[in-house]
Design a protein that fits this description.
The chain has 283 residues and is mainly alpha-helical. The chain has two domains: 5-97 and 254-282, Winged helix-like DNA-binding domain superfamily/Winged helix DNA-binding domain (Arc Repressor Mutant, subunit A), CATH 1.10.10; 100-232, no CATH class. It has helices at 5-15, 18-30, 35-42, 46-55, 72-98, 105-126, 128-136, 143-166, 170-175, 189-201, 203-212, 221-226, 268-282, and strands spanning 60-62, 68-70, 177-181, 228-232, 247-254, 257-264. The strands form three sheets. It has a two-stranded antiparallel sheet.
Length: 283
């Protein structure tokens, strides 16, 4: 069944307003809402809310008690809204990540050597008698396991605390590096703990799997798992000037009034989802 492009334009124009999408999502979450409930959510005057509810009439029904519920078309619209929101979030993060000045493997390796050397010295200082015994008598003594375990544990705590605080361990600060999320924002302590778990306890596995990803953002698997990467602060960000969006103008009759909407061209994914929704809506 061929889809009328004019109908597609009208439906997209209706859903283009964020308040209308919020109304549909609220009905989806709550099942049914009164006019007063929607008024509290929308935080607009009654005239504006009535206008938007009329625009959404094809997506809602009213119960015998006068409350609003989603129609079948409304339920389809909510699925499309949620899918497009998820896609838009991923696309935004991917776009931002492509402009990050990523650190090279060599610089990250040298920063790691500085950090592990520092933690090793701290461990030797804490466990000086055991360390001296290992070095002077038997390198394979049972005390070696305890020293290694404490070194790894301290390394994980040290990396998590400093990267969670400002994204930089001492080694990263000396090399001009910083750990960030893939959208360029600062790490939380949760992200720092996850990404450093692989570096501290599973480093060979972390690197081997990470290199197989063949993605310069994720040289380690736990970076991908945590959604983090490392940037070089001594390289200027490769952000290019914003290009004007590829837009087209839609002329749609809304409430008997001819209005123009500027709509960005949809990606293939968005177009497929919208086309599927329009087919369900028109049936």
């Amino acid at each position: 069944m061929a889809v009328d492009q004019e109908s597609v334009s009208k439906v997209l124009a209706v859903l283009a307003h964020p308040l209308r999408r919020e109304i549909l999502l609220t009905l989806s979450d709550n099942g049914e809402c009164s006019f007063t409930d929607l008024l509290n959510v929308a935080k607009v005057d009654t005239g504006k809310l009535s206008f938007h509810l009329r625009a959404l009439s094809s997506f809602m029904e009213q119960t015998s008690a006068g409350k609003y519920v989603l129609s079948n078309a409304g339920e389809n619209a909510v699925r499309v809204i949620m899918d497009v929101e998820s896609w838009a979030e991923v696309a935004d993060v991917t776009k931002k990540a492509s402009y990050l000045p990523l650190a090279s493997f060599q610089r990250r390796f040298f920063a790691y050597l500085v950090d592990i050397a520092l933690i090793s010295l701290i461990t030797v200082a804490i466990m000086f008698p055991q360390s001296l015994y290992i070095l002077t008598t038997n390198l394979l003594s049972p005390e070696l396991s305890a020293v290694l375990f404490i070194t790894i544990g301290l390394f994980w705590v040290y990396s998590t605390l400093l990267e969670g605080f400002n994204g930089q361990t001492l080694g990263k600060r000396l090399l001009g590096l910083k750990a960030v999320k893939t959208d360029g924002k600062n790490l939380s302590y949760d992200h720092a703990a996850i990404r450093n778990f692989g570096k501290a306890f599973l480093l060979p596995f972390d690197i081997v799997i990470g290199l197989q990803l063949k993605n310069p953002e994720f040289m380690r698997y736990f970076d991908k798992f945590a959604g983090t990467t490392v940037i070089n602060l001594r390289i200027k960000s490769a952000v290019s000037p914003s290009k004007p969006a590829n837009k087209k103008e839609l002329k749609v009759d809304v409430e008997g009034e001819s209005r123009k909407f500027s709509v960005e061209r949809c990606s293939c994914l968005t177009t497929l989802m919208c086309t599927k929704f329009i087919k369900n809506y028109m049936e």
